[in-house]
Give the backbone structure.
Amino acid sequence: MERYQMKVAEKHYLKGEYKIALDEYEKFLGLYETSSGAAYSQLMWSHCLVKLRKVNTAIRDGFQSVIDYWPQSEEAVMASYLIAKSYQEIGETKKATAAYRQLMEAYPDGQTTILAKMNLLEMAKTAQENDTVLDLLEELTFETKRNENSKGHCEQASRELAQFYFRNGDFANAIKALGTTYTKDNNLDHYISEYGRPAIQHLNRADETKEKASKLADQMIAHFEKSIPTDVSEDPAKKIARDSLNRIAATYGSAGKKESVLTTYERIGKLLGSDDSLLGQIAAYHRGNGERDKARDIYLKYENQIAGKGAIARMLREEGKLDESIAVYRELIDADTSRLNDYLWAIAECYEGKKEWKNAIQTYRQIDRFPSNYFRMASCHRRLKEWKEALSLLAQCKSDERNAPEAMIQIAQTYEQAGQRENAIKAFQLTCRTHPKSSQASRAHAHLQSKYDITVTLGGAKDE
């Protein structure tokens, strides 16, 4: 009978019928006051009041009653947490803070204490109470016992705390915070670089903190130097050495010491030998400094000449030297037929960049990449105001089920560009009707309303 009554109440609660559920939980309490389910029923009665927006009543007469009548129960622990959480949700931050603190003192090792700390942290961040934020991050990082429930929260806190210390130029404490989560063999240096370099850039922006930036960079570099093995004859040691030197180069870059970046790359070459990966880094360095000719010379030194020429072609595109880029891609087609589609696609995009739409169409037509190339050809035809050709290509794209919604909305847009108002409206409506759950249907729906003052119910019905 107890289980039956509890299930009745639960059924109404899960259906969102909170007033009825409230009465059913109260009925349980009246009938089975000494039941082992009484504390739970009182807890759920309180939840119903919260759902009915009677939060203060839920706290005073509901959650507090669980604590008063069943102080040793698990429900009492949860009720203590829910009192604090309820205060937080209605904006009573002082009462919420006091309730969370009381909970943490009463149940220092419980899961609810971890949740309490995270909620206190959230409130402190919102209120920009930086000292409280720092205290909580330190508590979570250094003092909280890590277990299955707390581990993820503590690790996240350690990362946030390290970022705080880095931004203040405090390398020692940043390492200490990260050291609670990571080891030398388990990503420690990665996170030092990941969080330290943005901090250096941040500190470098203001004259009064440039000295801190320089000191932090020096400390990080010294740390990474210690990671470089003395013997790099074996592959694992080579990888560690390369990773450490790359972090050193990146740190120099963050500190604005460009010459030291290049010197570090040269050091990698002397210690580990040069390869295309290193040459690519050196070339990227020169490109970043606007030294395109030097970058080109580096690419020409690649052992994999195909990759080197590909990098040159991409660089020429970035420079807007599209004819030169096309010429290099044509050389690549002759040298490497295995990537024919990729090279042709790049050439077609170069023609688009030059607004040579007919050449772009001819090139896309050679590519085996349906329906993507058909969409591109249709776009070029639309630019040439060749509406019939564009519509024909888009109609073929509709045969691909996954791309049909995009093909349909582009058909509507093509009709609209061509000045065929009625056909455009019908095509937009068809998009809504045949693919109501797609993003294209949402766009078509909004466009019909804003441009044509037509309301379409996604799925078919319409009002004009």
